[in-house]
Amino acid sequence: EVLLVESGGGAVQAGESLRLSCVASGITSDDWVIGWVRQAPGKEREGVSALSSSDTSTYHSDSVKGRFTISSDNAKTTVYLQMNNLKPEDTAVYYCALVKGHYTGSNYLAWALTYGIDYLGKGTLVTVSA
């Protein structure tokens, strides 16, 4: 069974930075997508960023592009989300997500994060005050 464990959330002021980490264990798939989704109070879950185990493809949603960067270790089982210039609208619970399968290219990674999540971590809260 895949286990995803997030860390790094917290409370910051607008303009500050945070880095989230996710450690994945128990992956048995040959290929996967690993990334982050978030859910703010009263809102639907939103795909934020992802990367493919198959190549160097990455995806960042329009709302975080230019501010957030996803990266990983060489095995692509530990993934990081560097969040810079945080805004109050980034306040949410951030979940690490894993999708089994071969997906490459930002459009397919976005689809996988939206419709194909197989495993979800317990989440870490990010609170950004104005």
Question: What would you say this structure looks like, in words?
Answer:
It is a single chain. The chain has 130 residues and is mainly beta. The chain has one helix spanning 106-115; strands at 3-7, 10-13, 18-25, 32-39, 46-52, 58-60, 68-72, 78-83, 92-100, 119-120, 124-129. Strands 2, 4, 5, 6, 9, 10 and 11 form a seven-stranded mixed beta sheet that branches. A four-stranded antiparallel beta sheet has the order 1-3-8-7, with no helix packed on it. Strand 7 and strand 8 (78-83) form a beta hairpin. The longest helix is centred in the C-terminal third of the chain and has 10 residues, at 106-115.
Number of strands: 11
Query: How many helices?
Result: 1
Ranges with pLDDT <50 over ≥5 residues? Answer: none
Mean pLDDT: 97
What portion of the residues fall into strands of 2 or more residues? over 45%
Structural class: mainly beta
End-to-end distance: 40 Å
Task: Please compute the radius of gyration using only Cα atoms.
Answer: 13 Å
The helix fraction, in percent, is under 10%
Taken in chain order, the helices and strands follow as: EEEEEEEEEHEE
Shape: globular
Largest sheet: 7 strands, mixed
